[in-house]
Amino acid sequence: MTSIWTGSKVRLRGIEPEDWATFQRMDEHSADLRSVDMLYPPRSAAGYRKWAADQSTHEPTGDDFQLAVESLADGVLVGAMSTLDTDRRAGRFSYGVGICRDHQGRGYAKDAAVVLLTYMFGERRYHKCEVGILAFNEASIALHRSLGFQVEGRLRDHEFYAGRHRDMVLMGMTVDEFADRYPFHAL
């Protein structure tokens, strides 16, 4: 039996309490944090353990949720992704994905995005996915272009990072654009 949560390289799953150490290691790379979200003050190991334990029992609110990204090849946690800004009335949502530094460049982010988009478009009836990417994050912009996202605009001096304001690139993809590249299949 095949799961909608399994792609060709990764499986999306809930966060488990034992995942805390991987998340702590991910947060040790400031450049990676800036490209995904923002820098936060250091957290203790106990703080990471508590966060992971809380995430493992947290029930999603609507269609906003966070998932672990696990490699199919070896069952190792390689990153995380989350949905955000879900708007059922308008049919729009956004998401973020972050892959651990030592697992980047293997296609995990793209595969995870396809799995998530298949669920959000094909099961939750969303019409459009919109993402905001810091302009200096060229890898994420290239990833989203390869997925079929289109540049829809640029917000100048929109976010403050590393001592100055940075531009945000807005990209979007509709369900029809997604389905043209990744047809829906019944499992």
Please tell me about this protein's structure.
The chain is of the alpha+beta class and 187 residues long. It contains six helices and seven strands; from the N terminus they run βαααβββαβαββα. It has helices at residues 20-26, 30-36, 45-57, 108-122, 138-147, 175-181, and strands at residues 10-13, 66-71, 77-87, 92-99, 128-134, 150-161, 164-174. It has a seven-stranded mixed beta sheet with strand order 1-2-3-4-5-7-6, sandwiched between helices. A hairpin with a 5-residue loop joins strand 2 (66-71) and strand 3. The longest helix has 15 residues, at 108-122. The chain starts with 9 loop residues before the first strand and ends in a 6-residue tail after the last helix. It comes from Streptoalloteichus hindustanus. GO terms for molecular function: protein N-terminal-serine acetyltransferase activity; protein-N-terminal-alanine acetyltransferase activity.
Strand content: 25-35%
Q: Whole-number radius of gyration?
A: 16 Å
Name the CATH class. Answer: Alpha Beta
Could you give a short account of the major beta sheet?
7 strands, mixed
Gap between N and C termini, in Å? 8 Å
Secondary-structure class: alpha+beta
The average pLDDT score comes to 93
* Count of separate structural domains: 1
CATH structural architecture: 3-Layer(aba) Sandwich
Query: Which of globular, elongated, flat, extended, rod-shaped describes the shape?
Result: globular
Overall strand count: 7
CATH fold descriptor: Aminopeptidase
